[in-house]
Amino acid sequence: MRGSWWDGRRADSPATRQRAVAALTALLVSGCSDTPDRPEPTPGPTGASAGPNAPSATPPGDPAARAAALVATLSDEDLVGQVLMPYAYGDSATKVSPGSAAGNQALANVDTPAEMVAKYRLGGLILVGFSADDPTKGNQETTNVDNPKQVHELTAGLRAAAGRLAAGPAPFLVGTDQEYGVVTRITDGVTVLPSALAAGAADDPKLTEDAWRAAGAELAAMGINVDFAPVADVLATRSTVIGSRSYGADPKRTAAQVGGAVRGLQAGGVAATLKHFPGHGHSADDSHQDLPVLTQSAAALASGAWPPFTAGIDAGAMAVMSGHLDARAIDPGTPATFSHKLLTDVLRGQLGFQGVVITDGMNMPPAKRWAPGEAAVRALKAGNDLILMTPNVGQAYDGLLAALRGGSLPRARLVEAVTRVLTMKFRLAGLPTAPMSTLNTPAHRSAAEALAAGAVTVLRGACGGAVRGPVTVTSSGGRDGTRAALTAALTAAGVSVKPSGGTVVHLVGYGDGDGDLRADAAVTVAMDTPYVLARAKSPTLLATYSSSRASMTALAAVLAGKARPGGRSPVTVPGLPATTCGT
């Protein structure tokens, strides 16, 4: 058997799956439609892990049964709160700066993240942040991640607040965008993997799975149980917002990588989220700015965009993120986030996904066409189960509650969504959680280094062989840290490095173009998408697709002549082969 409807996989047959969902939904609706409103939850002791109905609400058994029992006890307010997953200001659950308090007041009429959890009976919270090269920074309003100890304390505080709620028996969801590469929220004190495109270049799903298992264990150790990764988008265009976040341009190879990442991440104790359905890589536009249009036919999307999503579903991915994308061939003019045709008919009906569907950030322009309350209702009715990053928590909560009580939001749809969310929570409760001592261990670093080493690609020049020393490392502006990392790695590999006058190894990365190239460089290295190499004049062209420390160590080994660059470019660079190292 390939899996049951509640474990995120495709069921044996659509008819069987539909009967199971219908039966459970009918049971739950009849069990909770007349439930009187629950009074405000009574605060329990700090660190409490159960709500007032804990003994009867969490029977032993499979996650779906536990979810069904708990849903039947929840009030309207509890149900609405469970489908909200906003962000918050502050790096602590209970103690924040005046500026963070002001941000939370504007967002949710509370001072602290813990108060937000309690007031709106939230199902989860996303931890946000950004870096200089981050293409998602447009909707990252703040940052509340600094270092692993701080993250661990923050997540513990959030769980303590959530444990006092009626839904407290189900673990609180704490998510973040830890994709690695240009979108990496936590970078200090953890094992940092190379980018998805680097994994695509290595083209070894086992290496990807091993690296993501290490990543999942470290996220779980810090108290994060949902990762908004892997990116399942096929890089069919030169999208700068997706770029090296994708595993590549080939649907089949990308699918294999996505499957490996899902298996590894969830084996480490963290729910994987496939994004951005129906395929952000099929448009070069940025949904953080406007509504990208997918002009491909439905058949072209099915064959070119959806295989990685199908592979992730088959690997057991617990969640899929809907994208703010206009698939003209399927539901013209409607962002997929709000499209019943795409999320219910295609994702659930055609692809068979039965896990949790999560919106992309609702604070992004395509979702802000409507007020927060109306947007949340529309997203839920389309088939989403979790509303992510609403621009106003109170308005989203009130809008959902009013729609539920007014009848425009069917109770069956809300109950179905909450049941899926709670089922995922109880599944996560059964996964392993590593101790904090597992962070950045030699074994984890080794997994990241193996993946990075497999990625290094030579697109022009000899296949291997040491660069003539001494070496001078240069780069486009703002990459001092990366230059220092490569310099240290080269020195450790026995290569002499001098400030000037040596053989020039020039680094280019995210956002760089022709003007960032260096005509006199003997070696030019692309640390993001390799397209810029088409205009580089260097006799030797290499790609690491990533500027992580592991990638710089792997690059140094190739430059020192101690490793063979065995990667293949996962995207086509005009005028250059995928590799000069054979097939």
From TrEMBL:
Ranges for the region named Disordered are 30-65
Entry GO MF terms: hydrolase activity
* UniProt KW keywords: Glycosidase, Hydrolase
UniProt key word tRNA processing: no
What are the EC numbers?
A: 3.2.1.52
Q: Which residues form the Glycoside hydrolase family 3 N-terminal domain?
A: 110-423
Reaction(s) catalysed (UniProt annotation)? Hydrolysis of terminal non-reducing N-acetyl-D-hexosamine residues in N-acetyl-beta-D-hexosaminides
Q: Where is the composition biased (Low complexity)?
A: 45-56
- The main enzyme category here is hydrolase
Pfam families associated with the record: Glyco_hydro_3
UniProt xrefs under InterPro entries: GH (IPR017853), Glyco_hydro_3_AS (IPR019800), Glyco_hydro_3_C_sf (IPR036881), Glyco_hydro_3_N (IPR001764), Glyco_hydro_3_N_sf (IPR036962), NagZ_Beta-hexosaminidase (IPR050226)
State the family named in the UniProt similarity comment for this chain.
Belongs to the glycosyl hydrolase 3 family.
The protein's name: beta-N-acetylhexosaminidase
Tell me which species this is from.
Answer: Micromonospora parastrephiae
